[in-house]
Task: inverse folding
């Protein structure tokens, strides 16, 4: 059984000085000798603490603008020596090396420098060398050395000393070592990822991703699956950076669906008017624009009221009281918006199970980034789908051109199609979806399912005919045969937007002309799996 190790000597060198003074005071009060470097040492002395410079330990001054200060046998010998090994103890005695029982280090703010848009030189200068070397040394020797890399561990560490007469347990040192190795791994992942981007290397030989635990979840997609939520430090507006105002903790499925909903609604700029997306199981069941936010919500809701039950609502403008009252009329899991007024917050307060999230802004749908997905034995990495189409990108392929109203709806439906699982078919009319077919193995089946949903809603709303009559259709990929397009025409669609590129494009175009449809090609596909 591993013994407890008394803490007699600590080396402290940090960039993030959050909570450091109180922690150092706590150590000093418990009889721990403090050794430190540069600005950390100066800060501790200014706080009235007695600190020994690391240069006094090594016999060498800090040099080369601080690049060389702790890379020395006096430091690394004190961290790495096995104190139950006679040869190690003899070497320490021969060279005057004293043990270091506690290492407190956090690293140069490389990630923050990159996030702030630092120059290549600034980023390189903020790559820490001595810090990771010490962390790895101390963590490797956790049999004897405790390593603290996160300020959040300062309090629990002092409590451990109090509970064990100034010593640490092996269990704690193991736990801290795991945290330490994870920190250096995340740091190296950030550096290598940044360098790949800086050098325009799209597919580096080795790719690493890292995250920081944000929330331990009750379970994953299903109750028998363990799960947690990690943030990547990118600060992209969305579920990871949102403020939760009320409601119980988000679940795995809540987080996944809320992300899908917010990314979709971010396609619609606030200055162009209100927009709402309602999502269930990562697929939209209604998306709409409106003169007001409450109108956009009601129009989105009327696309598929059944599927909207227990869904996620995302808005592209701040939530107001009138919209909140409308949303509160049906069971909703999460509402996310770039802000909420006092009336909205007050109305939702009566719905204790409804989670309200607000963000400072929308996500940028054109911002480059990476997505990845695990497969057996590896993972797939690709660019985020930030493709967008404007009127000037469209290629007319039929005899009839779409009119202005059809063209506006085609572009609206195309933005929605990007966020629907393939095979995806979207019927849209007057800036609102009126039928969505998602995730089918056959494109014609998605076309028919979307039309059938519109028929069902027409009955619910008491309409004389489905809203697919006079609608437009978007298809995320080309029609491999004319059958899907013919099914859309039979449902009442008058115009079609699709990528094109099928071997049977000519047959599909001929069928569109025969049905009097206008059809445009985008030359861009939006598969989503």
Result:
């Amino acid at each position: 059984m591993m013994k407890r190790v008394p803490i007699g000597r600590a080396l402290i060198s940090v960039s993030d000085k959050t909570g450091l003074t109180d922690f150092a005071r706590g150590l000093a009060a418990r009889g721990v000798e403090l050794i430190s470097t540069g600005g950390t040492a100066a800060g501790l002395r200014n706080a009235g603490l007695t600190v020994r410079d690391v240069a006094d330990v090594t016999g060498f001054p800090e040099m080369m603008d601080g690049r060389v200060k702790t890379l020395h046998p006096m430091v690394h010998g004190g961290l790495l020596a096995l104190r139950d090994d006679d040869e190690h103890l003899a070497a320490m005695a021969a060279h005057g090396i004293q043990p270091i029982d506690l290492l407190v280090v956090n690293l140069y703010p490389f990630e923050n420098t990159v996030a702030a848009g630092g120059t290549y030189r600034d980023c390189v200068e903020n790559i820490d060398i001595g810090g990771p070397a010490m962390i790895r040394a101390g963590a490797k020797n956790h049999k004897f050395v405790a390593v603290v890399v996160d300020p959040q561990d300062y309090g629990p560490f002092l409590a451990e000393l109090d509970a064990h007469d100034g010593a640490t347990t092996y269990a704690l040192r193991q736990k801290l070592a795991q945290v330490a190795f994870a920190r250096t791994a995340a740091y190296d992942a950030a550096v290598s990822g940044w360098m790949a981007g800086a050098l325009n290397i799209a597919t580096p030989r080795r790719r690493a991703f890292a995250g920081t635990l944000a929330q331990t979840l009750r379970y994953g997609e299903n109750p028998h699956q363990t799960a947690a939520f990690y943030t990547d430090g990118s600060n992209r507006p969305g579920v990871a950076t949102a403020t939760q105002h009320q409601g119980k903790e988000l679940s795995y499925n809540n987080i996944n669906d809320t992300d899908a909903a917010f990314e979709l609604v971010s396609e619609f700029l606030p200055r162009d008017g209100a927009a709402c997306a309602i999502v269930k199981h990562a697929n939209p069941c209604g998306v709409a624009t409106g003169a007001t936010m409450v109108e956009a919500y009601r129009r989105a809701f009327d696309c598929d009221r059944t599927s909207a039950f227990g869904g996620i609502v995302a808005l592209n403008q701040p939530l107001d009281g009138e919209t909140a009252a409308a949303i509160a009329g049906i069971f909703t899991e999460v509402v996310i918006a770039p802000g909420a007024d006092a009336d909205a917050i007050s109305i939702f307060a009566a719905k204790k199970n409804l989670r309200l999230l607000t963000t400072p802004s929308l996500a940028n749908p054109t911002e480059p980034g990476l997505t990845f997905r695990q497969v057996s034995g590896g993972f797939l990495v690709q660019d985020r789908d930030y493709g967008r189409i404007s009127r000037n990108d469209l290629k007319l392929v039929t005899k009839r051109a779409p009119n202005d109203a059809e063209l506006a709806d085609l572009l609206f439906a195309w933005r929605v199609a990007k966020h629907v699982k393939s095979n995806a078919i979207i019927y849209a009319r007057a800036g609102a979806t009126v039928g969505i077919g998602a995730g089918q193995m056959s494109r014609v089946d998605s076309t028919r399912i979307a039309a059938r949903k519109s028929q069902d809603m027409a009955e619910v709303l008491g309409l004389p005919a489905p809203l697919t009559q006079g609608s437009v259709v978007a298809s995320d990929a080309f029609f491999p045969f004319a059958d899907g397009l013919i099914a859309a025409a039979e449902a009442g669609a008058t115009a079609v937007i699709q990528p094109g590129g099928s071997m049977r494009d000519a047959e599909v175009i001929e069928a569109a002309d025969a049905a009097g449809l206008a059809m445009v090609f985008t030359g861009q596909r939006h598969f989503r799996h």
